[in-house]
UniProtKB/TrEMBL annotation:
Listed InterPro entries: Nucleotide-bd_a/b_plait_sf (IPR012677), RBD_domain_sf (IPR035979), RRM_dom (IPR000504)
Gene3D superfamilies: 3.30.70.330
Coiled-coil annotated spans: none
Boundaries of every RRM domain copy: 1-37
Protein name per UniProt: RRM domain-containing protein
Pfam short name (any one): RRM_1
Gene Ontology MF annotations: RNA binding
């Protein structure tokens, strides 16, 4: 399953994102894609 989460702070790291969703189950992969502008 892929989940899109928008409007993240530029300070958000993949580890922080993983921690935020860990209470709902194991997060196998987290990837943050930043703007290319």
């Amino acid at each position: 399953m892929n989940l899109y989460v928008g409007n993240l702070s530029y300070d958000m790291s993949e580890e922080n994102l993983r921690s935020e969703f860990a209470e709902y189950g194991e997060v196998q992969s987290a990837k943050i894609i930043t703007d290319k502008f």
